[in-house]
Amino acid sequence: MPAREGLLIPADSDIEFTRSFGTSSYEGCHMNMMGFIKRGAALLMTWDDAYIRPDLIKTKASLKCSVHAKRPPHCESATFSVTVTPLGRGDWNTIATAYRKIAERKGTAVTLATKTRRNPEVAKLLGASNAKLWTCLARRRNEDSTKDESVEVKWTFDEAAQVAEHLKNDLGMDRCLFTLGGWTEGGYDCRHPDALPANPECGGNDALASAVARIKALGYVACFHDNYQDMYRDAKSWNPDCIQKKADGSPMSGGRWLGGRAWLVCAPKTLELAQRPQNLPEVQKLFKPQAYFIDTTYAVGPQECFDPKHPLNYNDDIRWKQKLSDYSRKVFGIFGSECGREWAIPHSEFFEGLSGVSGKYFHNNIDPEKLGATVVPLFEMVYHDCEVVHGKYGYAPEAAAEYVAQHALCGRTLNYHRFDSHLYWKQPVPEVKARPGVVSVSQISSSKFQIRYRWQVEANGAGDWHVCVHFGKGPSPLFQNDHAPAKPVAGWRAGDVIEEGPFEVTIPPTGKADAVDVYVGLFRGSGGSERARLLGGGTDGRVLVGQLRLKPAIAFEKVGPLPSLGDRACFVRADNGWAEGLCPMDRFVKNTHEILGPLAAVTAHARLIKLEFLTPDRAVRRATFGSRGGRSLTTVTVNFGASNFTAQSALGGKVTLPTWGFLIESPQFVAFHATSWAGRDYDAPVLFTARMDAKHTRIFHGFGNARLNWHGRELEVRRETELK
Ligand SMILES: [Zn+2]
User: Fold this and answer.
1) Residue 324 lies in a domain
2) Which single residue of 99, 206, 490, 671 has CA 20 to 30 Å from 602?
3) What is the pLDDT of residues 394-412, one digit of tens each?
4) Rounded to the nearest whole angstrom, what is the distance from the C-alpha of residue 671 to the centroid of ligand 1?
């Protein structure tokens, strides 16, 4: 199934489920295809219409697929076709190769080479990591968007430029897609579709123009985050005529975001609004970022509108979104949006969210384990050379080893979306050694519940802290239950168990959300600007404690502790290595960019041509990236399993890969996270990378023992070294 990167779902597991994978729906089919493999033979199913919806029904006895097609409301005579092509002997590789040929015929396989020819700035995205400051200005409005609930500057525009300069000058990050959110007049997710002027709280127009110039001077791609699908009541150009209408003629509401209740703009109107002189043209004139990101365009499933003035079916909606993309690309040069779909490839350069969400493979809607599935890089097997792909949302580096390993297998760089506010590397984050949890949730009414919390304290507390409880998805909460702790944190003693509540919480209308994530943290300072680091928390301090179901009944589901599989914090290590002494976020950024940046760069014009499972449980996977001529192959071997695996390397001999260990080999780049290399055994896993060109080899040492056997030489590489 081409859901985000892709799922391999075995038919012979004991697991039972029923699930729809609608075309272009949020976690449905990101490509218009499915593949089937049975007894060594492969079958490809393809279609073109956005109304096609494959359903999978898995019982203990069988796995069945049925395909549904709904008649579009504005097209009485619609016919739908699904093509099934037997491919003979083969596997997932055969299916991907066959589908690539179809993609080339239908025009979706526009390569990055072509995109770089039409705009040379695109080359700066190849091997670039994705760094995003989501909410320079975080203004929280009430439901009706009539008054502020809180206003916080997380980064002034000057500070944003300093963050970019820190990544380049202090961490040596060579390439970066650097995105600013919350630069608009109201702040992040506020008062759309009116963007200008840049908000004065962060410094206004001149400061933003100067920040963009500084980011570009680093060789980075400066990108702005904007939104044309959500419209807010307090926008200067609020206009109900633009809003999508339901079948009964009523306006379609969107989510409850920072700016209040959003209303969904009908797709042709999004283009009309973006094209107004005061929108994209003026933004380009004032600030000249090389790239633009219009949120939700590729994420939200295809829409219908029943307004007789601008009726819309799913397929129309997609065509208008393509036009919006083309227009943005014409104005700025580079365009990207959220998640990503096959139909968007010819109209954009990058996707943010296809390769992962919040440090996981999927959002809350799919749990691969509940499908008995293995996540496979099917998208990369068809389109790796056509689009720059990243994940979306913040995650905890201390738990991200699997996310990193998966991005290595995909040949993709990471998204760094969870920087602490302001100049994060200069501010030591105070730590409170306590672990929050939810004890119970009981429903009072359809929109009200009681909740109790518990803190398990492992070391004496200090400081004057407030408890924040966020309910929502992604970076901005939909609602909250912030409160003073039952006992001041300064009085917490090792071994204490602090019970809190019950608190009564009212759920505001949340649109279509069936469930929200629950985060608990400790904050202090005005606007909650300073957060404590907690046990189990991410770099933004918040701990994901579970999920709250809102429909059909209110119920809480705890996030189980991650199974103890390997060292999930391994990429934050820097013992003996380059980033030793830096803050955890910088250690993680440095290590992972050194691994994934060069890998993404050397594979940018290649397709993932072969995916192999090296063990029967599919835990060890090898991806081979190749170009058309078959020269300069890159192989990536990754161990997702619980036991060590020994890989064979031309350069490193027997290379032992621990859990989350990997081996990357290409003529220009070698990297490994392993416990043995070239005849040397290490007590603990080490990370080394080597970049080669005709004259030089640059070796980088991430962590662990610094000794390295390299082409018969014995080296000690503390941070990095260059060999001639
Ligand atoms: Zn409409």
Assistant:
1) no
2) 99
3) 998 988 999 999 999 999 9
4) 51
Instruction: Tell me what pLDDT residue 539 has.
Output: 61
Distance 495 CA to ligand 1 centre (A): 59
Let me know if residue 422 belongs to a domain.
Answer: no
Q: Is residue 533 part of a domain?
A: yes
Token duo for residue 7: 């799922």
d(CA 480, CA 471): 6
State whether 616 and 692 are in the same domain: yes
Predicted structure pTM score: 0.88
- Cα(271) to centroid of ligand 1, in Å? 12
Give the C-alpha separation, 193 to 199, whole Å: 14
Mean pLDDT throughout 644-668?
A: 96
Based on the domain organization, do 576 and 674 belong to the same domain? yes
Q: For ligand 1, a single-atom ion, which residues have Cβ within 5 Å?
A: 266, 305, 307, 310, 312
For ligand 1, the distance from its centroid to the CA atom of residue 469, given in whole angstroms, is: 37
**Is residue 100 in some structural domain?**
yes
pLDDT in tens, 246-270: 999 999 999 999 999 999 999 999 9
Report how far ligand 1's centroid is from the alpha carbon of 328 (Å).
21
Q: What is the pLDDT of residues 439-477, one digit of tens each?
A: 999 999 988 999 999 999 999 988 889 999 999 876 678
Ligand 1 center to 311 CA (angstroms): 5
C-alpha triplet 278, 318, 127: angle, nearest 5°: 75
Instruction: Output the CA–CA distances (angstroms, integers) from residue 220 to 127, 131, 245, 722, in the order listed.
Output: 11, 10, 41, 24
Please indicate, yes or no, whether residues 525 and 579 belong to a single structural domain of this protein. no
Whether residue 174 sits in one domain with residue 30: no
- Asked if residue 628 and residue 519 are part of one domain, the reply reads no
Q: Spell out the residues 6+ positions from residue 440 whose beta carbon is closer than 8 angstroms to its own.
A: 450, 451, 452, 502, 556
Measure 143 CA to ligand 1 centroid, in angstroms: 24
